[in-house]
Design a protein that fits this description.
Elements (H helix, E strand, L loop, with lengths): L4 E4 L5 H12 L10 H6 L4 E5 L2 E10 L6 E9 L8 H15 L4 E6 L4 H9 L3 E6 L9 E7 L1
Parallel strand pairs: 4-5
Antiparallel strand pairs: 1-2, 2-3, 3-4, 5-7, 6-7
The protein binds coenzyme A (COA).
Coenzyme A binds next to α1, β4, α3 and α4.
Length: 149
């Protein structure tokens, strides 16, 4: 990926991430990323940056309960850096980390209205299932993605 450096996250990255997240998403999503994700899953999360600062991030982890499975909780690329392969690079680096841990499957979810996320995951070879009704409680359907690492 030309011009972008990807590294493992650190807990202190939380403040930079949370400061841009609503702007990059185009709506309020700050409540979906409490600080505990960076405090406890920074080792398997990734930060991309370029000469303008943070350009993307991925928050993910290997399941502590299922040794085969990894989960991507959050991903975003700075609006001016999109459609140039950075999201794919973040996923590729996460897959490599998870492959090295012996993980077999990566999963993620999104809301049924997030067509960008659905197209993005389909392009990356994820199987797309759903909407799964009541997945996160009554009336809260989600789309479920899964892919081998
Ligand atoms: C989703 C997101 C991370 C993609 O990042 P990106 O760097 O633009 O993605 P890439 O350039 O690596 O694209 C990878 C593939 O996804 C596809 N894709 C990316 N954005 C797309 C869009 N808006 N519509 C359709 N396809 C898209 C690309 O065409 C590409 O496929 P290809 O390689 O077969 O051409 C970015 O759009 C984003 O941050 N969106 C807002 C936050 C969000 O919705 N996150 C997803 C939550 S699960």
């Amino acid at each position: 990926m030309m011009g972008h450096r990807i590294r493992r996250a650190r807990p202190a990255d939380y403040d930079a991430v949370i400061g841009v997240i609503d702007d990059w998403w185009g709506r309020a999503v700050v409540h979906n990323l409490p600080r505990m994700f960076l405090d406890h899953f920074h080792r398997t999360s990734l930060i991309a940056s370029d000469e303008h600062g943070i350009s993307g991030f991925l928050v993910g982890f290997g399941s502590p309960s299922d040794p085969d499975t990894a989960y991507i909780h959050f991903v975003a690329v700075r609006p001016d850096a999109r459609k140039a392969g950075l999201g794919r690079s973040l996923y590729d680096d996460f897959f490599a980390i998870m492959r090295a841990e012996g993980r077999k499957v990566v999963s993620a979810i999104t809301s049924p209205s997030n067509y960008t996320s659905i197209d993005f995951h389909r392009s990356l070879g994820f199987a797309v299932a759903g909407p799964v009704a009541d997945y996160n409680g009554p009336g809260r359907a989600v789309i479920v993605f899964s892919r081998g690492v």
